[in-house]
Amino acid sequence: MQTWHPRAVQELAQNAQIVINGVNGAPGATGTTGTDGVNSAENGTGQPGQNGSYSWLNGCKCATPGTSGANAVSGGGPGEQGGNGIAAPSFSLTAHDYNGSLLIVSQGGVGGPGGPGGPGGSGDAGGAAGVNSKQCINSGSCFYQNGGNGGNAANGGPGGPAGSGGDGGPIYIYFYGSQPAQVVALSSGGLPGTSGTGGLPGTPGQGGVNETPPGQKTTYAPSGTPGIQPGGGNPGNTGNTGTILFQQLTS
């Protein structure tokens, strides 16, 4: 028995007199969204530095740097697997005489696409640097402070696996006398679904504002580490070819 590629069978089905299809698989759900990092005074994340001061009695009190932004709490969840295509139902045909051409096509349902991975959580911004007293900077008692680094982003979730195609259904042709040459029967497995794409990474937090010397442009501390977009899910399998039987009847 000749084996046909599922895509070729799909094209032939457009001109077939009888088409039997299985049900397509459902698409997989998208993965959950990662949780962003949120700055808080309690955890000391993303807090501005304290400003410096000068007094004749106590001298210089230097400013402090900003603290780093909160890292993302979690990455994106994986996409769910696409549903498998359903096998095509069986089909049988019995006739004393077959007049004219007859093309019968059976094909299993297409596998559902895998769900995309969820986006990763984002990092929060770093805190701004405290500002020193100009007198303390000029005297060399204090130095310009830096803002806090941005919080790190989390990775996106991996894409979900694709669903496999359903099996082609069996076709039974019963006839009297000679086998009808003008009757053609094809049964093919359904195509697999497409793999889910990896989720986008979160956004790294921006670095806090550095203490800027007079007359210079504003600068920032480094942003957080970016996340990655992982690969897609595993591919599915093509469904199996169904049985085709031509059976002669004697009475």
What does this entry show, briefly?
The protein has 251 residues and is mainly beta.
Q: Features of this protein?
A:
about 250 residues, mainly beta
Overview of the molecule:
By secondary structure, this protein is mostly beta strands. It is 5% helix and 16% strand. It has two helices and eight strands. The protein has a three-stranded parallel beta sheet, with helices on one face. A hairpin with a 3-residue loop joins strand 2 and strand 3. The protein is rod-shaped. The two termini are 27 Å apart. The mean pLDDT is 94.
Largest sheet: 3 strands, parallel
Overall number of strands: 8
Hey, roughly how much beta strand do the residues contain? 15-25%
Portion of residues within helices: under 10%
Shape: rod-shaped
The radius of gyration computed from the alpha-carbon positions, rounded to a whole number of angstroms, is 34 Å
N-end to C-end Cα span: 27 Å
Counted by DSSP, the helix tally is: 2
What is the topology, as strand order, of the major beta sheet? Answer: 1-5-7
Uncertain runs are: none
> How confident overall, as mean pLDDT?
94
Structural class comes to mainly beta
Run of helices and strands: HEEEEEHEEE
Task: Summarize the topology.
Elements: H1 6-13, E1 18-21, E2 53-55, E3 59-61, E4 91-95, E5 102-107, H2 134-138, E6 171-176, E7 183-188, E8 244-249
Parallel strand pairs: 1-5, 4-6, 5-7, 6-8
Antiparallel strand pairs: 2-3
